[in-house]
Specification:
Layout lengths: L1 H9 L4 H45 L8 H12 L3 E5 L2 E4 L11 E4 L2 E6 L24 H7 L2 E12 L4 H4 L6 E19 L2 E4 L16 H6 L1 H4 L2 E6 L10 E4 L10 H9 L5 E4 L11 H9 L35 H4 L33 H9 L15 H10 L30 E7 L1 H6 L15 E7 L11 E9 L12 E7 L2
Parallel strand pairs: 7-11, 8-9
Antiparallel strand pairs: 1-2, 3-4, 4-5, 5-6, 6-10, 6-14, 7-9, 8-13, 11-12, 12-13
Helix pairs in contact: 2-3, 8-9
Amino acid sequence: MLRIVRAFWHDQRGIALILVSVTLPAIIGFSLLAIDMSRVNNLHNDLQKGADAFALAAAAELDGSSGSWARAERAMATLVDNQSNFSTAGRFTLTSGQPGGTQRCNSAGNISWCFLKAIPANDGTKITTANQANYLADANLAVGQAETRFIQVTVAPQGFAAIFPASFVTSGASDSFNVGAVAVAGFTSGVCDFTPVFMCNPYEMVNGTNNAGGYTLEQAVSNPAVRRRLIELRKVGNGAAAGPGNFGFLEPPEGVGNGAQALAQTIATSTPIGCYNSANVTTKTGQNAGPVQDAFNVRFGIGANGNHFDSPEYGPAANVRKGAIRTTGSANQCPSMNQLSFTEAGTMGLPRDATTPYLGGRMGDGNWNFSGYWSTNFGSAAYPTAWDTTKPTRYEVYRYEISNGLVGTASTGGEIGTPAAACQPPVTTVDRRLLYGAILNCTALEAAGNGLSGHSTNLPVEAFGSFFLTEPVPSASEDASVMVELVDVTGGAGQGTLDNFLRDEAQLYR
């Protein structure tokens, strides 16, 4: 009997079942925890991806132009389709909506959002209700849209029901909680292959008005009758205040050099290498105007073989008609043509406007002598009949001359638009009569303490634009004027001709 008891005592068969029975609750508990952790992680990932997608879609529309808030809302409502699993609602699709695009903070569907003008410099600083006022865009729609650079998207917290019974561990503990997600995305816009020039916005609004007829920059670009107004851009002198209708220079790209000649070469070349960000450009201190004047005029076949502009990249435009023929006693137009002698009989460059009622007499009314210009240069050659009822812009006429083979037609005085053989070969890869530059709201910037004639940094750009040079720069003095027509701008109001220069990016910041 004792032997039987001893054998039973030492028998280990079935001990695994006992051990499993003892540890089974712990095994089940850890398994449930692992499943819950995986489920909640997947739920958070789904919500975060949705928040990221909403923020990126909206940020791509925040170019600072009118209607950008509404476009951002439309992008979130129509472009994003992210699904979520494992919430108490089961499998569902995150949605947004379009409440009107007039409020800086709003909500629709499963998300809420706020348009921001800035974000904290430190990534560890959260945007909360306590500090949100420091970063929100202005509540005024026009002001707020212009300064918006970021959007914060918050996904409405979704319920999560855990399988693991938390009340088993802690009495009264809830087995359910909420999971949410937040994303901040921003819009960065820039241009490459741009000349280092800035123009003070001739249509800058100050206190809701301006002295350019009350038109905004966007309205001017979209209206040909306003776009054909001739604008006299004057150089910002050293120490002089900048204002609508002035122009100056941006810091050239690294490696170009700091002197006036280096700056002039970056303006004169047909292959500029500068890239500029709309959020922060830097102005360059005033430079001697002589080389810069030559940098503009080389596009007209004036002085193209002098002042170091002696390689094909500095060639003239394909059409240099300007109301002049060669100077007396010289057949070599490029090095010898004097831009101050455009008084030859029977020649006519693109005329100025009949009157200049705007910008203190520096912006015309758009009424220029098209018929006189055409008859002087092309006689009875055909042109679009629509131009008889709606006067074209000078740029439209210039492009028509090129596309219809009229550049080589001689005026009654003998001038042709084809550059002289003594010039470098004309540049045909780009339009040399277009001047590209950043458009700044100079009045507002100077009111904020930015001296634009000096070295000012981190200046926001209203838009990047293209301007048509209608005539050579007549003087090398510090108050040299550049006569231009506005052609196009970047952003929602633009006509799309600058898209090849644009580098627009939406990116996540947090």
